[in-house]
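Protein modeling request. Please complete all fields; requests missing the sequence field cannot be processed.
Requester role: graduate student
Desired output: 3D structure, token encoding
Chains: 1
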Amino acid sequence: MIDRLSSTDQTNKLVEELVEIHGPLVFHQSGGCCDGSAPMCFPRNEFRVGSRDIFLGSINSQPFFIAEDQYSYWEHTHLIIDVVPGRGGMFSLEGPTGKRFLTRSRVFTDEEYSELKNYPAQHAKDITNYEGLKTTS
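Delivered output (137 residues):
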């Protein structure tokens, strides 16, 4: 199966560090302006994912979601979560580290996109294998 999400080695290392400090995490990619356009990282027990948000995969066993309306724009792309120097989102856990998460992407090939159509993306309300994951009603 084709993955909708991947992460760089730098991202994986930062996620490991954040898990050591904060425990289980959850990622969310919204589509707002400013901080809202960056992937945000939260303690899993302090953030509610929208029940209609789309599950894209995980980074080091930490679930990653995207707002449903944004998924409709990005469903043809593979998201690559990277880390770059700079200040993270105001509420995102990596903020104080001097690094920030950044979403890069590549367009799926026609073959990849065709295969993905056989595996529809799941909504957050249907994801049950992450302890402590909370969704809206």
